[in-house]
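Fold Annotation — chain and its backbone

Encoding — discrete vocabulary of local shapes
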Amino acid sequence: MNRITRLLRHRWFDEDDARRALGPVALARIETRVRASETHHSGEIRVCIEAGLPLGYLWRDLTARQRAVTLFGKLRVWDTEQNNGVLIYLLLAEHRIEIVADRGIDRVVDAARWQAIVAGMSTAFRERRFEDGLNAAIDAVDALLRAHFALAEGADNRNELPDAPVLR
């Protein structure tokens, strides 16, 4: 895609498009799913849906992955006690999905596993089943965090990050 086409595509989408893709009820259910997940492990899951890249990213021809890594920092997903935060990022304008995992969980989960989660989401997103795709991704990340960072029976887990999805 050339630079002008990409710029127009990203300017065409806005936060309202993100809200239409996932309405308030779906966003509330996703938040509830993240919160429930985090009662079983010490990890933190953040979901971010962005309609289009900021103009500066487009001008410098940066990728969805680069934006996801930036948001990983801005949303403080890296700032968890056990370095086990995971960002699930959806860029509507390019139909891109990125998962950025902190070093604690990334150390024990290989890239192929993250790509398998993204592939599963892609199928749902192509069919415009955004909530289903995000739910499947949250469940898959939850399973990985339970396997590697499960809470001990009766352990209390303080919520280090907000559970609500971020719309941009």
Remarks:
- The longest strand covers residues 44-50.
- Residues 130-149 form the longest helix (20 residues).
- The helical segments are 3-12, 15-21, 24-37, 55-59, 64-74, 103-106, 111-126, 130-149.
- Strands lie at 44-50, 85-91, 96-101, 166-167.
